[in-house]
């Protein structure tokens, strides 16, 4: 059995690979078509102009779905492995993860040059709420080590958490400096920058920080792969009757009543 066939580890693996591919594909397409500068543009800038914005939107929508599935499985796994003390924190983490995944879909479908306010809301939901999700999961990992997983796993997640918040602070500060140094300039529509012009240095710091933040998120979900090899979910169909009529209309007796229960794997993969 290959590693990605064990449990549900293909979920975080697919989330990481697919999301990274959406960033890289949009970047290559935008650079080749000269829609953006090749030296570290904003991720959003690479998904602003057609045709790359069309594929960028579709791919990030898929990433949002994979994110929802991943955070739910993580929630069920932590719920099964921890006690009542971590229950509320785990539920809060699930809510943060779902909101962050929804924010990714908002970012994908509202380009910054089309509706900047909604794009900004989506970015805050994705990165801001997502950073809180990483923080909550790091705290849960602290409570779960060493009896559930190793201290190394916790330290890796702590390192990624610090990386995430460091990138957020750097991006926020540099963006404020950039916007304040360019009064009257329509920055959201500015896709090309000239080295040495006003605001260029904080712009570059901001874009590097954004890419750093994106890959910090990807790196955090990489830490789920080994954990997800140890879990599988099943769906159970609980039938109330052996037929679907409100009342049996035929003269003959209804089909033989069974126990009305059927259980099958929710997703492929073995434990």
Taking pLDDT < 50 over at least 5 consecutive residues as the criterion, the unreliable ranges are none
Mean pLDDT, nearest integer? 87
**Structural class of the helices, strands and pairings?**
mainly alpha
Widest sheet, order of strands: 1-2
| Discrete helix count | 7
Globally, the shape reads: globular
What Rg do the Cα atoms give?
23 Å
Largest sheet composition: 2 strands, antiparallel
Overall strand count: 2
In percent terms, what proportion of residues is strand? under 5%
**H/E element order:** HHHHHHHEE
Helicity range of the residues? 55-70%
Distance between the termini: 11 Å
Topology of this protein?
Layout: H1 10-32, H2 52-81, H3 87-109, H4 116-144, H5 151-180, H6 200-222, H7 224-228, E1 234-238, E2 261-265
Antiparallel strand pairs: 1-2
Helix pairs in contact: 1-2, 1-6, 2-3, 3-4, 4-5, 4-6, 5-6
Protein traits:
271 residues; mainly alpha; two-stranded antiparallel ribbon
Could you please describe the fold and organization of this structure?
- The longest helix has 30 residues, at 52-81.
- The relative contact order is 0.13.
- The protein is mainly alpha-helical.
- Helix 2 runs antiparallel to helix 3 and helix 4 crosses helix 6 (200-222).
- Helices cover 60% and strands 4% of the residues.
- It has a two-stranded antiparallel ribbon with strand order 1-2.
- The model has no long low-confidence stretch (mean pLDDT 87).
């Amino acid at each position: 059995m290959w590693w990605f066939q064990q449990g549900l580890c293909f979920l975080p693996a697919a989330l990481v690979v697919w999301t990274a591919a959406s960033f890289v594909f949009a970047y290559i397409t935008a650079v080749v078509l000269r829609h953006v500068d090749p030296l570290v543009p904003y991720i959003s800038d690479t998904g602003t102009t057609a045709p790359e914005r069309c594929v960028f939107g579709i791919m990030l929508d898929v990433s949002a779905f994979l994110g929802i599935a991943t955070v739910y499985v993580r929630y069920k796994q932590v719920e099964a492995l921890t006690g009542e003390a971590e229950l509320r924190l785990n539920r809060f983490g699930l809510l943060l993860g779902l909101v962050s995944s929804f924010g990714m879909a908002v970012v994908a479908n509202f380009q910054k040059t089309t509706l900047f306010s909604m794009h900004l809301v989506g970015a805050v939901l994705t990165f801001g709420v997502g950073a809180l999700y990483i923080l909550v999961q790091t705290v849960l990992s602290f409570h779960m080590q060493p009896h559930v997983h190793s201290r190394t796993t916790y330290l890796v997640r702590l390192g990624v958490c610090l990386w995430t918040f460091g990138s957020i602070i750097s991006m926020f500060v540099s963006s404020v400096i950039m916007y304040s140094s360019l009064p009257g300039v329509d920055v959201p529509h500015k896709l090309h920058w000239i080295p040495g012009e006003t605001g260029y240095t904080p712009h570059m710091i901001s874009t590097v920080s954004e890419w750093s933040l994106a890959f910090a998120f990807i790196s955090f979900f990489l830490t789920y792969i080994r954990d997800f090899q140890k879990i599988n979910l099943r769906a159970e169909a609980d039938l109330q009757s052996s037929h679907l009529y409100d009342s049996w209309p035929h003269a003959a007796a209804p089909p033989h009543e069974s126990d009305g229960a059927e259980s099958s794997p929710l997703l492929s993969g073995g434990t």
